Amino acid sequence: MFDRPRNTALACLLFAAVAGYFVIGHYLYKVPIGLDASAFLLGEPLQKLTLLVFPRLQHAASGGILLGLSLLAIGAVGFFAMRRSVRARAAKVDAGRREFLTGAGSGAGIALGSLVIAGGAGAARGFLGVGLGHDGWRGVAANIGSDQGIVKTNPEWKQDWKGARVKGHRRLGRTGWNVSDIVLGTGGIRGEDGEQVARLAIERGVNYFDTSPDYAASGSEQAMGRAIRGVRDKLFIATKFCTPMGHLPPGTPVAKYMAAVEASLGRLGTDYVDLCHVHSCDEVERLLDENVHEAFDRLKQQGKVRFLGFSTHTPNLVQVANAGISSGRFDVMMLAYHHGMWAPLPELIGRARSEHDMGVVAMKTLKGAKHHGLVGFREEADSYSQAALKWVLSNPNVSCAVISFVKLQHVDEYLFASGQQPTADDVAILEKYDSLIRGTHCAPHCGVCLDSCPEQLPIHDVLRHRMYFEDYGWEKEGMRLYSMLEKNASVCASCSAPCLGSCPLEIRIQERMIGAHELLTPS
Ligand code: SF4
Ligand code: SF4
Asked: What CATH number labels 159-437?
């Protein structure tokens, strides 16, 4: 049958359609999310090989490479099968016609056709979700920036706020820096738009920004590097001991820790950063890893980093923060702190200040940032962020509050709270917010529920990634982080839910976990 070129051509195109649908479609769905190398078949060895050729590569290339190799393989099957068939056929005809048939074009046309068909079938599956029972990437894209079925309160860009500037400064502990009370959080800063937002915030008096290599897979550091040209010396810059792929585990070699910071310096276009954090630290072992401390000491000696810090917002926050304070090694502590926070935190913050004169940076200041999506909160939503910032800054032991700036409007909105004390109206807004989010917001990822889960799921992390997707608008980041968890919430739907009732905040854990899995899983 396959000695007839026509039959071979049809078989090749059919193969391309099937392989394209299942293989190319799979990759076309997953690659644009920017998943980590480990999410792909042979992803990690492929990534290592790629780094040998492109040592400066910052992103996971494995998915893209597998996509390209699969396409090439489909094209090659078409090419060789067709050429073989044509040659077999040509052996039966006269010499002149044989030469024509076996020429260079004998398989090229089918190879090209296979590529087009494989790409089309892949796009139909990956981008349109044909045959999958969902909308493919189109569905993900529709969720991005959508309201998830909740009526959003479009914040009014109020005339009164326009032109707001930093009005309050505080001493950042023993660093001696007098920093703006509002700090530019750059988790949502990327590209030219982000650069513009950062420039405006700096122009209006923000003199401290907090970035990280793993924000937008280094997009934040790159944008900030462009935004600070010419004004670097006026700024206090904080980054993290991380790579664009995420945290470095305890025991990472000293040289690798140092290389990660040097890569940050390159992206930021500066010779030094003021502060480097052990980032999002949930275990004392990583906090006190002697290699990270040696790396810091050497970087400090070389003038590349001035101060050491840590950030934590995990179930072990109190344990990690206490260990960090007791060590006396850290100049700055950045921790989740917002209204309605659980009791030990003010005391912990006071200890950091009184015992070691540490700078204290409050993060996660908007308690989930659900205000624009809450039904029944339309009137208050515009002023919520200012009330929340004022509440955080009402603690005199807090040096400053970091908040994610994403839009130009945020510069006016957030800086309007600078230097102000909370009023009775602000407190009423915060109380209303708390009552509306009761049962849905995992704050502050306290971990009380963890022992109740027989599957040992990282409930706090799953719910945090859901928050990134749903409330922060960092949809791809939420999906990427969720895909990197060792255990996910796929088992929750068939579980008898012993976690029920274990959350002191009355969060309906099973329901929230099932919803998180649906929201954060690509297929
Ligand atoms: S429902 Fe999910 S989170 Fe709750 S106990 Fe079961 S597996 Fe754990
Ligand atoms: S679900 Fe409740 S108990 Fe569990 S980490 Fe979140 S706030 Fe704490």
From this structure: 3.20.20.100
Residue 242 alpha carbon to ligand 2 centre in Å: 26
Other Cβ atoms less than 10 A from the Cβ of 421: the count is: 9
**pLDDT, tens digit, for every residue of 437-464?**
888 888 766 788 999 999 999 999 999 8
What is d(CA 129, CA 262) in angstroms, rounded to the nearest whole number?
Answer: 42
Residue 344 to residue 521: CA distance in whole angstroms? 35
In this prediction, residues 397-411 reach a mean pLDDT of 94
pLDDT at 150: 40
Q: In this predicted model, which residue has the larger pLDDT, 195 or 504?
A: 195
**Separation of 146 CA from ligand 1 center, angstroms?**
28
Determine the distance separating the centroid of ligand 1 and the alpha carbon of 497, expressed in angstroms: 5
Contacts of 499 (CB under 8 A, 6+ apart): 449, 452, 453, 459, 509, 510
Which tokens hold the place of 429?
Answer: 């807004």
Q: Where in the chain is the domain with CATH 3.20.20.100?
A: 159-437
Ligand 2 pocket: which of 499, 507, 509 to mutate (most atoms <8 Å of CB)? Answer: 507
Burial of 236 (C-beta count, 10 Å sphere; 0-12/13-18/19+): buried
Q: Is 482 helix (H, G, I), strand (E, B) or coil?
A: helix
- Compute the distance from residue 315 Cα to the ligand 2 centre, in Å: 9
Residue whose Cα lies nearest atom 6 of ligand 1: it is 497
CB of 460 within 6 A of ligand 2: the answer is: yes
| pLDDT above 70 coverage of the chain, percent | 88
State the pLDDT at residue 307. Answer: 98
Q: Cα-atom radius of gyration of the chain, to the nearest Å?
A: 27
Predicted confidence at residue 517, as pLDDT, reads 92
Confidence check: pLDDT of 334 > 90: yes
pLDDT in tens, 127-146: 887 876 556 666 555 544 43
Centre of ligand 1 from the C-alpha of residue 516, in Å: 12
Q: Is 505 in the pocket of ligand 2 (CB under 6 A)?
A: yes
Ligand nearest to the CA of 438: 2
